[in-house]
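Intended use. Records like the one below are meant for learning the mapping from a protein sequence to its folded structure. Do not use them to infer anything beyond what is encoded.
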Amino acid sequence: MKIDGVSHLLAAEANLPQRWQLQCRIQGKTANLSVEHVLRRLPTRRIAARVSLGDRQLFGKIYYHPAKARREWRRECRLAADLQKSGVPSPRLVATGNLSGGGLLALFEFISPATPFSEAWARVDEKDKPALFLQLIGLYQKLYRTGLCQTDIHLDNFVFDHDQRLMVIDPAGVRHINGRLTRYWKNNLALLLAQFRWQDSHALVRQALAVLESEKAFSNISQAQLAARVNRQARLRLERLGKKSLRESSLATLQNEDRFDCLINRDPRFERVADRCRIPEQIEKLMSTGRSLKAGNSATVVKVEIADREWVIKRYNVKNNWVAVKRRLGLSRAKRSWQMAFILQELGIRTPAPVALIAEKGWRGNAYLVTESATGEDIRDYCEKLPVPKSAFSHLFQALDFARISHGDLKGSNILCAHDAIALIDLDAMTQHRRPGTFLKCRRKDIDRLLRNWPPTSPTHETLVKVLKDISPS
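Structure written out for the chain above:
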């Protein structure tokens, strides 16, 4: 496909293939730019892609919004130049260009191979992580000293090049921040640290402050104060993750139809299953062939087999008009379960992965949630044969406390245990709380419901009381 101008691009953008040609002018000369792989697309505004010009590989950004293109392009080019002048390692702006109709181009050197910091962090041994983290904080310190702040500060906006040099990418997210705005810099650092595992946060806070203590913005903040900011940013980040899962994003694809909406997990492991579950009629047919796990008024749960694996389909039934009203006014139980599955995975809590969420439109339409089949046995049955998995319970409640999340129904059948590992299922009532008081009230209810699974005189009950007593929510 060959694209000639902004109007053609706007008309074709919904059906663009991964590879296409763009006719443009670069440095005043007519050129055909080969778009080889679209990395990100923001509809009607911009496209980020791996491109080639002749035999040269580049990273290109195409701006084509009628009103915003020039302003966004100017900012990108100006800040890319500022990064280069300041000596902060970043990809070099190679050329600029335009396409007919008002579109603009920014072409950067293509870093290959480029390893995102998050990928390097996941691969490195635990003993080598402090040294790797020091590289990141060192680069952050360099940004601070030049007054340039990466406002879109996530770990994939820092990459290692082929020489293992850590670089800042995405100049569009960089801003000039006055050094006197100490609150902004502190919150920005907290957001960076919030993207690591919650278990590591205290050690990373201590390490970061040791590097940054000579900088004005960080000289008067204690470890406890920064840790509190990190916790707050981590909770907000989890909240944003939940919202992100309900729209077209890197987590899920969204399919809008006249009769229903369909969200599909982007994980390639679920592609074959998702293809079988895209419309209500297909799901109902699958459910009719599966094994019933629950047939209640509010929900019907069936286990099915697809591609030689077992999966679970939960249909959320609309019992009456009041349920229909609540579904329209608030977050439905199906959407809540979908969101919380992604959040629990981010926290390192085991739960069946969400595969698809299909919601019928209309006043009394049903909703369907497709997930992996959970493994493990009811915690009550497990504890009859084996000791209480104390470390697993401790980890579970520490993670839930950190995120201020309550489950809402911790009966034994919703807690599955296998090989001393705990998984949570039935996330319909799970809630992330903003207010500590509300969370503590719901946490007490969770613990009371958990302990009611065993008589007060049983060894399991007594052991859990001791385990939970040592965990104090933040």
